[in-house]
Design goal:
Glutaredoxin, single chain, alpha+beta, about 200 residues
């Protein structure tokens, strides 16, 4: 199948992180290459009147336990390591996602995405603290100060807004969201359906 799958992500989502960890094996099996599209999850929530699972599951009996079970199944199915709970969650990812756009312009996008997810969900840090973020990205071989400075430029801000608005217009209401052509899939569990479509099944 020639359609390039898109992965709309915000590094503040642990389920987006788990999807990111699972994607390389899917790419290997299908021959497809996922196009990563940075979006601002907070902006999507605001535009769609949605809330984070932490809010929507609060006080609900049995559902949080099932969601945890579902995550365990995902981790086993895709043979990935579970995320490490970030003690600073929720982290404001506005500057991180702007910096993702900056990293695209600087030609270091793949390395940036890996580093941002790592410092959010593998070795968790308070990544909405600029000083902490700069040190973390520097440790990952990036120029943290340069990326965060460029994140404040008007063209970078505009691109993230455009990505986020475009996601909502296409039907997105959260992250991770995937598109294969015009077909939308939401949530890490639907990566199975994404893979089936890519494989032509």
């Amino acid at each position: 199948m020639s359609k390039t799958p898109q992965f709309l992500f915000d590094v503040g989502s642990p389920n987006a992180f788990l999807s990111h960890e699972a994607i390389p094996a899917i790419e290997q099996r299908t021959g497809a290459r996922f196009d990563y599209v940075p979006v601002l999850l907070g902006g999507i929530f605001k535009a769609t009147n949605n809330k984070s699972p932490a809010e929507t599951l609060a006080g609900v009996r049995n559902k949080p336990e099932f969601m945890a079970l579902e995550t365990e199944r995902f981790v086993r199915r895709y043979k990935v390591d579970p995320y490490v709970r970030n003690p600073f969650f929720p982290v404001n990812t506005l500057n991180l996602m702007r910096a993702a756009i900056a990293a695209q312009l600087e030609g270091v996008f793949d390395k940036y995405v890996e580093a941002a997810f790592h410092h959010m969900w593998r070795e968790p840090k308070k990544m909405d603290d600029p000083e902490v973020a700069v040190k973390a990205f520097d440790a990952s071989g990036l120029d943290g100060a340069k990326l965060l400075a460029r994140a404040q430029e008007a063209d970078v801000k505009a691109k993230l807004i455009a990505n986020t608005q475009g996601a909502v217009e296409r039907g997105a209401f959260g992250s991770p969201t995937f598109f294969v052509g015009k077909e939308m899939f939401f949530g890490k569990e639907q990566l199975r359906e994404v893979e089936e479509m890519l494989a032509g099944r």
